Amino acid sequence: LRYQRRCLGRYSRLICRLLNIRITQIGQPSPAGLLIANHMSYIDPFVIASRVPVIFVAKHDIRDWPWGGILTRCGGTIYLNRTQRTDVGRIVDRIKERGDAGVAVGLFLEGTTSDGTRILPFHAGLLQPAIDNHWQVLPCAINYRVRETGSTEGVAWYGDTTFLPHLLQLLRYSRIEAVIEFAPALSGDNRKTFSTRLHQDISRMHDDARQRLGIPLAQHEKKGPSLEPIPPA
After folding, report:
1. Which residues of the chain are modeled with pLDDT < 70?
2. How far is CA 79 from CA 88, 110, 131, 135, 203, in A?
3. What is the reported pLDDT for 93?
4. Cα separation, 73 vs 79, whole angstroms
5. Residue 3 and residue 221: Cα distance in Å, rounded?
6. What is the pLDDT of residue 232?
7. pLDDT reported for residue 118
8. CA distances from 24 to 20, 133, 183, 223 (A)
9. What was the pLDDT predicted at 85?
C-alpha cells in the first residue's frame, strides 16, 4: 500500500506538469484516515495526490478506461460499483483495511462531478469507518481557472460531456491555475452531522478558492471577505 501511494504521488506530479497545471496550496495536510474533497474533474485526484499521500475510492468503470484504468490500478484505487447497493459494505471494509494500515483514503462524497459553482450534497455512508474507528478526517477543497477562459470552463467535467474531446481540449490550454486548500483534520461521532460539518467547511474553502482565482461568484453563492486574487500566469 505504501508503494502504491508513492507511485500515485509520482505520476500525479508528472501529469500536472504535462497538463501545465500550476498549483497554489493553502494550509498543510495533517495525518488522517480519510481525505474528503469536492469533485469537479478526473484531474482532481492527480492534483490532490501531488500534494498529499493518499489512495482514492472511484467508480468501478474507471478500471476499464484506456489510460485511467492502468493509472488507478497502479495507485491502489478502491473501486465502487454504485449499481450494487451491497457493494458499499465491501468498500467500507476495504477503507478500514487501509486506514488500519496507516494509509489515507480519499473520498468524493458528492458521488459525481459538478460544474464547480457549488458543492453538491454529500453521501454520508462512506464516513462510517471514520466514525467507528475514531479516525481523523481531512477536509480538502479544490478549484481551477483556465487561462484562456478565465473560469473553470474547460476543466469541470460533468453532465453529458464526453471524455476524449474534453481531454484533448484540456491539453490545448496554455495554463491551468489550481488552488487546493486543506483545513485542520476533524473527527465526529454521527455520520450525518459530521457530513454536514464537512460540507460546510469544504464549501467555504471552495468559495475562497474561487475568489483567489478571480472567478465571479454565482448568484446563489454567498460572498465572503475579499481575498487577494492570484495573478494570471
Report:
1. 59-76, 82-88, 216-233
2. 10, 16, 21, 21, 26
3. 80
4. 9
5. 41
6. 41
7. 86
8. 13, 32, 15, 21
9. 66
Q: For residue 181, give the H/E element and its range.
A: strand 176-182
Q: Are 155 and 41 in contact (CB under 8 A)?
A: yes
SS3 213: coil
Specify the pLDDT at position 74: 64
pLDDT at 79: 73
Residue position matching grid coordinates 480519510? 34
Residues forming a β-bridge with 180: 25, 142
pLDDT at 69: 57
The order of strands in the sheet holding 78-80 is: 21-26, 176-182, 137-146, 34-37, 105-107, 55-59, 78-80
Partners of 177 in the β-ladder: 22, 145
Q: What is the 8-class DSSP label of residue 65?
A: S
- CA dist., res. 218 & res. 157, Å (int): 18
Q: What is the pLDDT at residue 195?
A: 95
76: left (phi over 0), alpha (psi -120 to 50) or beta: left
User: Residue 118, SS3?
Assistant: coil
Distance CA 61, CA 92 (A): 19
Residue 124: CB atoms within 10 Å: 19
CA distance 171 to 144: 15
Answer yes or no: are the C-beta atoms of 185 and 137 closer than 8 Å.
yes
DSSP secondary structure code for residue 17 in this structure: H
Residue 226 confidence (pLDDT): 39
Q: For residues 18 and 73, what is the distance between their CA atoms, to the nearest angstrom? A: 20
Which residue shows C-alpha cell 451491497?
A: 86
Q: How far is CA 132 from CA 17, 57, 95, 189, 191, in A?
A: 39, 19, 12, 8, 10
